[in-house]
Write a structure and sequence with these properties.
It is a single chain. The protein folds into 2 domains: about 55 residues, no CATH class; about 150 residues. Helix 4 runs antiparallel to helix 5 and helix 5 packs antiparallel against helix 6. It has a 4-stranded antiparallel sheet with strand order 2-1-3-4, with no helix packed on it. The protein is elongated and about 135 Å long. It has about 260 residues and is an alpha+beta fold. The chain is built from 6 helices and 4 strands; from the N terminus they run ααββββαααα.
Length: about 260
């Protein structure tokens, strides 16, 4: 009987001591880091200052937040000055703009490859863009021929006045014809320059596409400079700028046509 009581007392003592050890065990570092409160500490002119809240006098220098046992919970960097804050914000804006530009470049390249999976598709787009301007050139050239034929008739009429001033109506017709011819020839020069520009843009875009077709990551080779580098157009659509240019040239040619 006495032996059983001694054994029971020993078991109870062991359980009590185990519970005390669990209570006295230190909290894990993660638990300490989440505990509220703490001690703030910094130094000013070699003098240590402590407080239970952030120390205003040390806003321009590093502060340490300590746990109750004196261990460092975290280091608080100094507050930024107005100039430093402005510089940090400007840096953040620049980094954000760079991220956005990078995303845009990736999206543009993916759209470009989706629209032009091979060189044949890109060549068809080039020809479609050039067709508008070629048509405007043909219109201007045909109108120049008509104006030249009309001028020949006016010259024949002017031969009846070898030593006299030309009638005002005839003179005005000749002047208007010559002005119209000059306008049409100027249009032809502009149209030819436009074809050079279109080809140059498509050449640059083709070089960009060749790198993408060869496996270069989207957005890694700069922005394409061709006419199709913007958002994708609807299927079958032509490049917006060459088409509008061709229509504008044709409208200008119509205004210069002989009446």
């Amino acid at each position: 009987m006495g032996s059983e009581r001694s054994t029971l007392a020993s078991r109870l003592l062991v359980r009590f001591l185990s519970a005390c050890l669990v209570i006295a065990a230190p909290l894990p570092a993660s638990a300490q880091a989440t505990k509220p409160g703490g001690i703030y500490r910094c130094e000013i002119n070699g003098k240590r200052i402590t407080s239970d809240r952030p120390i205003a006098e040390c806003s321009d220098r590093e502060q340490r937040l300590l746990n109750a046992d004196g261990s460092v919970r975290m280091v608080i960097p100094p507050s930024m000055t107005a100039d430093e804050r402005a510089e940090a914000e400007a840096r953040e804006r620049a980094e954000q703009a760079e991220r956005v530009a990078r995303q845009d470049a990736i999206r543009r390249d993916r759209n470009l490859v989706a629209r032009f999976p091979n060189e044949a598709a890109h060549q068809r787009a080039r020809e479609a863009a050039l067709d508008d301007v070629r048509n405007a050139v043909r219109i201007s050239e045909s109108r120049v021929k008509l104006l030249e034929a009309e001028h020949k008739k006016l010259d024949e009429e002017a031969e009846f006045y070898p030593a006299k001033p030309l009638p005002q109506k005839l003179k005005s017709s000749i002047d208007a014809n010559e002005a119209a011819q000059a306008a049409q020839r100027s249009l032809i020069q502009n149209q030819q320059a436009e074809m050079v520009r279109i080809n140059a843009n498509y050449d640059a875009e083709l070089e960009h596409l060749r790198q993408l077709w060869s496996g270069a990551p989207a957005g890694s080779i700069g922005a394409p400079s061709g006419p199709n580098s913007g958002p994708p157009l609807a299927s079958g659509s032509r490049s917006a700028r060459p088409q509008s240019t061709g229509k504008a040239i044709e409208a200008a040619a119509s205004r210069s046509a002989p009446r």
